[in-house]
Amino acid sequence: MKTTFPTHPLRRASDLDPLLEAIGEARVVLLGEASHGTSEFYTWRTALTKLLIQEKGFQFMAVEGDWPDCFEVNAAIKHNTPTHAPASSVLSTFNRWPTWMWGNWEIVALVEWLREHNQALADDKQIGFYGLDVYSLWESLQEILHYVEKQGDGAVQAAHKAFRCFEPYSEDPQEYAQAVAFVSEDCEDEVTEMLRALRRQVRDLPPGGLRAQEQKFNAEQNALVAVNAERYYRAMIRGGAASWNVRDQHMMETLTRLLDLHGPNSKAIIWEHNTHIGDARYTDMRDDQMVNVGQLAREAYGRDNVFAVGFGTYQGTVVAGKKWGATPEVMTVPEARRSSWEHMLHQQLKGDNALLFSEELRGHPLLAHSVGHRAIGVVYRPEFEQFGNYVPTQIPERYDAFMFFDQTRALHALPTEADTHTPPDLYPWNY
Fold this sequence. Notes:
This protein is α/β, with parallel strands linked by helices. The chain has 16 helices and eleven strands.
């Protein structure tokens, strides 16, 4: 049986040229990662992101991060803030566990580059940085209160009513979810009415330029986060796939809204875990009736307009926690499990890195059925990896391309002290 795969070298930035050509005119480029704590995944995504911005005119990137925190970064790289704080200081806003996902030196370098790149651009041409995630219930409520009180009438009453509904739960989403999961008294109506009121208020404001539109978008997005976060936390307590689907559907809704904000010809770069960007229909997620951004984006925009790049490693080190909320540490990533996708690539490449394209992999006998594909979350126990951490995957269909790094290193986390309000444990889906 044929045991080798068609591969392309991956040693320097110029080796990304074939990938740029394959991306072509795609409107949405999804860049994955097999863990949230591997340096090479961040640095190579950065290299590709720069090329997509410079050579293909992509207008913004959106990441697996909370909306309020990422919008502060967006403001900083667009010079909306009065002081030129160093990027490491700007990223201290990511102080909720897992802090290292966006609070790291690899992202510092990217943020500094984005800020410098934007300096020469008009307001409506500057590159944006946004968050897709749904966890920031309390932070988004607080942002809404600040906005409506500044604007005056309109949504003030609805915003205060929603905030008061959540106050008894001490800014703890798990306490809220446990209290309302199986009773009729919850805050769903309050946050839904707040969103309606805010949309009415925003609709009546003068249009303004892109920056003014972005500020109105920010207010409405925080209200949308509150609505979907309330749904997410209730669903999470009940178990099953529902909470995962609420989360990824929110991410997709946010992506669609961002593309609409930036215009009909806008292009987006997405940074998320492989588990979000690789089409769920070609993994065992489908058996659990789970959807993800990769699937939803292909369905919404067509496969030719969405290009997904998966990432993987054979062995090395990674930053993760041994349990939810634990102190992050550098852990050893053992050799990949035999017969896994990563193990097969290691055997063929003998220590080299490689770029692979799905159109060249289709029809390969070893990939005719699903193979195990490594996935490391923010919670990781290397000693148990042989019994889990591998997602059965139809590689040529889940992604459009794949970037393999044989030996990888842990990313370099900033010394950010985690906030005490850690979101609820998402295990086993801590991606």
